[in-house]
Amino acid sequence: MTDERSAPAGAVLVVGGGISGLTTALEAAEVGQEVFLVEKNPYLGGRVAQLNQYFPKLCPPSCGLEINYQRLKNNRKIRVHTMTEVKSVSGGPGNYKVTLLSRPRYINSNCTCCGACSDACQDEIDNPFNFGMDKVKAVRKVHDHAFPARYVLDKAACSQSSLDAILAACKYDAIDLNMQEREMTVEVSSIVWATGWNPYDPTKMENLKFGSSPAIITNMMMERLASSSGPTGGKILRPGDNAEPASFAFVQCAGSRDENHLEYCSYICCMASMKQINYIRAQYPEAPITVFYIDLRTPGKYEKFREKLMADEKITWIKGKVADIIAESDGSVTLVAENAVSGDKVKTKVDLAILATGMQPALDQAKALGVDTDANGFVLSQDEGMISAGCAKKASDVVTCAQSATAAAMKAIQASRR
Amino acid sequence: MDKKYGVYICTGCGIGEALDVDGLSAIAQENGMTAKTHEAFCGEAGRQMIKDDMANEGVNVPVICACSPRVWKEEFNFGPESITVRANLREGVVWSAEKPSDDRSQEVVDEFTNELAQDYVRIACAQAMKIDLPVPYKQETTNRRILVMGGGIAGLTAAREAAKAGHEVLLVEKTDKLGGKALGWRKQLPTKAPWNALEESSIQELVSAVQTDSRITVKTSTEVARIAGAPGAFQITFKEAGTRSEWDAPSRVTVDMQDKIDKGEMEDPNAGYKKYTEANPAAEIVGAVVLATGWVPADVSEFEHLGHGKLKNVVTNAEFEELAKEGKVPANVAFIQSPGGEEHDKDFPYANSVTSMVALKQASYVREDNPDGKAYVLYQHMRTPGNMELFYKGAQNNDGIFLTKATVTGVEESGSGLVVKTKDTLLQEDLNLEVDMVVLGAGMKPTTALAPTVNLSYRQGPAFLDLELFDGYADSNFICFPYETRRTGVYACGGVRKATDMVETIDDACGAALKAIQCIESADHGVSVHPRSGDGSYPEFYFQRCTQCKRCTEECPFGALDDDAKGTPLPNPTRCRRCGTCMGACPERIIGFKNYSIDMIGSMVKAVEVPDDDEDKLRIVAFVCENDAYPALDMAAMRRISLNNLVRVIPVRCLGSVNMVWIKDALSSGMDGALLLGCKFGDDYQCHFVKGSEIADKRMANIGETLGSLGLEPERCGVRQVAITDYDTVSEVINEFIEEIKELGPNPFKGF
């Protein structure tokens, strides 16, 4: 989606349309600030759009996103550009010149989301929104609650006959196969980097054997499995054979708090796993669950949430780092660890192992864009014009992201009022 | 507004194929409106057709019968002088249409589907005739100054950031100097990469930045006695700290309490204080408030086995910091994080993760002051989230700091020192540690847990409501919207909201200052703040018919309504969030918005055509929360899940706005039931207006009695909780309700 209205003076550029970028954009715009909001994906909402529920309330993220989208629709100060990334930045605080690059969606603003193109399309791709756990049509609305509500076409994945069928199916002249990559330049007084995070690549932890068995999944995959819009319609089933797991294990700090991977703590994984235990309990009330951890970081108001689970006799908590995971021939896996308190070696065989993979900052072209980062890639607010927010700044939960995103809006307002 | 209507029936997205469009046009005609059709009103050509009618025919109320009102909202906004009304034929009828089955042929299904569509056109026409253009409420003057309560890190930061954005600030601090708790710190936790070393305290820098900022006025040794008024024009009465004033904010007096006071059965808690509505001519005016009154060290005396208050040299972390600031600390010190012994592994109450980090900081004091010093940090769970893990790693590399998980079973005197008894350590043995001093990782208790603190002079009392949900912290219930509390224009930050470190406090304060500015801007424009940001409508009251029942003043989730001595409401529109809970509460039906009123929704309900001779054609009205349940219905439709075609959906701002007269309207016009679909309520409520769905549930329980007395079954009315993600189950929820109605049979008053 590209908003063609002309550029205002003293605007702020918000890079990233996840919960942090969206919050910065809205909070700034509701003070009267002009905003450009650019997002790499074809939809806004970022990582939280993939989550089933938030901890500790176990409420759906789309509830807050819906409000934010309504705020966005009611606010003319925000210009949204999806499928767009920052190519280059020049200038300085007060007058940055930023070149944006938009990839073609191949679907124009005539799209009514009627779905005829998707019905006509014969080609399928691995669904990136569900981490490849199912297939989707190459032309699709990315998910039910996608905003902007518009289809997107993966042209490279389509045969000519599919493309012909898609063109023929659309009654609204919304398919534009000649759409090109486009560049645009915006002048802004400040830039908020809300570029978020990626799940740490689980294959990097060789001992955890991700990929060796479908019984080893990541916490983000678990979110999709538990979600009613996910690949299994919300039923937690083992990928591959769709078996109902009879037992589960969580591997905490899968990559985090580890010098060889992410040296920091990813902040959310303890609570995320406990949240996911709630998903499991709703479907498998009696299934044994083992949690391997270093520390349970559920401080403050999160302690109540943990307390409930600690009372569950079918959950075993083992302080100890998982050393190895072995794929078994019956589809299950065995986790090997040392109990740090007793010193015993532990072997636990389960039907599904969930790796609590950490957060890695997603902005990878920082240096080329003139953005300062720390050694781990988190964006530093380097001066009054370059501002970081949310998980681009530090590993955070959603509440903390919303705080830092609101703070970033303040910095942006100051920059434009200067 | 002189209205001219135009009805635009879209035939795209399957509407034209599924529905008898001529029949729909005829209904517009019956309502005196001309209908036009197009295959895609959302497209350029379709919108141009509407724009042409607006330019040439003077149409200013386009009634667009097409897709859900949630889509193409901006495209169908034709400017401030027009009102767009929507009928949801695509998601609401066609995409969610019943599929033919063995029981019901295509022909029968089509009949039901078309009747549904026809009713939606009727409802939209009725809405168009009753809706009016909102005129924003404008205060005479909007004050742009911001009051910051509290002169610690949070308050100082909020003041400075608001000033940097060009606002005047009034900063009040209870003690005689600025700086707060940080003044007593020897060093501060790391605030920047590489996050591994303690820093010299930066508090003096922050204090002088505030003191030298000409936009900031500082009042020390001062407290806020009361805050009256509303965003854009709060009236602040100050007093000397620690004194009593006749302007102190009065306590909450409920209707029942007032009754007892009047009868002499109860003492008036507010005797001797100025009435809450009395204006203080000496008050200072501000536009918004940042609450940064911080915390006090939490009590640790309940943990008797740890000996605080009994054993010499057992101190809290706050007391230890004082020692460290003043001089040298002892050489052998144990830091206890988790007081539960063998009972539980939680940290001290009000701890959060800060106490873990403070223990690491203080452990390094031991090392700084004593070349051979030994610090033992005993924890159940070391909590150094995010980058603070790097600080933890730094401590692990310090030879004299011993860190272990441990269950501390007791602290005892031993000679001149102390012995700490532990079990379950990482050394796989029970340890008895001989130390000079024991430091307990006490938490940070928010000032709001001790007193109202914000001291609002409001009808609903001086404090934030329901803070027990957050252990007394002035927190928000909303994960996505942490600044949204139940008191518009007052934004909490720092230790009063959460036990946090400095980095988070600074962000939090910066965000709170932004929200304060935003609230002032919104008040100035006469529009609502979150969640109906930018809404220019506001509730208006027809006071001549007010019976002073006080329901609206009691039920408003945001305390927007004060009242006079007789009990007549005194609205404060800039406190209002436009949910309509007052409108739903009013038995006299005297509250309404220009574009959302009792009459408008009532007329929409009555527009539904109710067949009086066909038992298969029951009619059920569903009032559906537009924030969550309505999108759930839309998404069900996108998945082509059939929704029961006996139901007529009317979106509402919040279930709290549903007035019971609409239920009576529905049943007296022969409809067979009324269903309310809204958000989850209870402790983990999801209602964006906090109390709306809960209040609706209570009201419906009461209407049950009323219906019973009329000879109608209370089961004809129901409230169901539907989350936005319940699109896979919402259809079943509705069907189950309708099955219950079918069991009851048609409304016996049908046709009368």
Automatic annotation (TrEMBL), chain A:
The UniProt entry, under Pfam families, shows:
FAD_oxidored
**GO MF:** 4 iron, 4 sulfur cluster binding; metal ion binding; oxidoreductase activity
Question: Which keywords does UniProt give here?
Answer: 4Fe-4S, Iron, Iron-sulfur, Metal-binding, Oxidoreductase
Protein name from the UniProt record: CoB--CoM heterodisulfide reductase iron-sulfur subunit A family protein
Q: What PROSITE patterns would the database entry show?
A: 4FE4S_FER_2 (PS51379)
Q: Which SUPFAM superfamilies match?
A: FAD/NAD(P)-binding domain
Identify the species of origin.
Desulfurivibrio alkaliphilus
Looking at the record, the residues that make up the 4Fe-4S ferredoxin-type domain are: 102-131
TrEMBL record, chain B:
Domain 4Fe-4S ferredoxin-type residue range list: 537-566, 567-596
User: Which Gene3D superfamilies does UniProt cross-reference here?
Assistant: 3.30.70.20, FAD/NAD(P)-binding domain, NAD(P)-binding Rossmann-like Domain
Q: Which InterPro entries match?
A: 4Fe4S_Fe-S-bd, 4Fe4S_Fe_S_CS, FAD/NAD-bd_sf, HdrA-like, MvhD/FlpD
Kindly list the GO molecular function terms attached to this UniProt entry: 4 iron, 4 sulfur cluster binding; metal ion binding; oxidoreductase activity
Q: Which UniProt keywords apply?
A: 4Fe-4S, FAD, Flavoprotein, Iron, Iron-sulfur, Metal-binding, Oxidoreductase
What highest taxon heads this organism's lineage? Answer: Bacteria
Cofactor(s) named in the record = FAD
Family named by the database record:
Belongs to the HdrA family.
- Which named protein is this? FAD-dependent oxidoreductase
- Origin species: Desulfurivibrio alkaliphilus
